[in-house]
Amino acid sequence: MRIASLLICSLLWMGSLQKETLVIQQKEIIVKGKTSIGDFECSYDKEQIGDTLFIGPMNTTARSLNFTIPVREFGCGNFILNGDFRRTLKADQYPVCEVRVLRLFKGQSNLYGDLSIKLAGKRLMLDKVMFDKSQYLLAGKVQLSFEELELETPSRLGGLVSVEENIDLEIKLYTGPG
Predict the structure, then answer these.
(1) Phi and psi of 55, rounded to 5°?
(2) Does residue 9 surpass a pLDDT of 60?
(3) What is the pLDDT of residues 99-153, one digit of tens each?
(4) How many C-beta neighbours within 10 Å does residue 33 have?
(5) Is 8 within the bounds of a domain?
């Protein structure tokens, strides 16, 4: 009887460790900021069927979700903003950005992720980034500053048009059934 109880408890415990799997259908990165004359938004999205993201306690690079983003493929709405964005991120020197979701895990009521972001040659490790999960979307948002990225805040027209120090980085992962 004890062995049967132990076996049942073990099976239940193993089931609780089972990881949820999300199949990523599309990835989107959005950079938002404010200038002295208005807001701006630059985005990159890519459909890529088949990437898998595991929700659970594991923290291995084999289970991380990695994507490389060519800086020149960000769209900001017009060629002037596109050029400013590329110059600010030093696209000639650092032609790609990297975003890695190292692990995704459940909190009490939300999902959290540990991220690694490489932007303009600077790598940032971000722990416990909150992700909102709806039926087919996993969305996280991080506020970064030009200072922590070791970038100069861009300005135009002799400083009449300037960008605020903080920018928002949104990561949207569109999912399908796992």
Answers:
(1) -105, 115
(2) no
(3) 998 888 888 878 899 999 998 899 999 999 999 988 889 899 999 988 888 888 7
(4) 21
(5) no
**Domain CATH for 93:** 2.40.128.110
* Neighbour-count burial of 93, counting CB atoms closer than 10 A to its CB (0-12 exposed, 13-18 middle, 19+ buried): exposed
Q: Supply 120's token pair.
A: 């303009």
DSSP codes joined into one string, the chain = -HHHHHHHHHHHHHHHHPPEEEEEEEEEEEEEEEETTEEEEEEEEEEEEEEEEEESS---GGG-EEEEEEGGG-B-SSHHHHHHHHHHTTTTT--EEEEEEEEEEE-SSSEEEEEEEEETTEEEEEEEEEEEE-SSEEEEEEEEETTTTT-PPPEEGGGTEEB-SEEEEEEEEEEE--
Q: What torsion, rounded to 10 degrees, do the Cα atoms 96, 99, 100, 104 define?
A: -170
Tell me whether residue 2 is in a domain: no
119, amino acid identity? L
Contact 99, 117 (CB under 8 A): yes
Q: What is the pTM of this model?
A: 0.79
Tell me the CA distances in angstroms from 128 to 112, 116, 175, one per residue in order: 5, 11, 20
Domain residues for the domain of 25 are 19-176
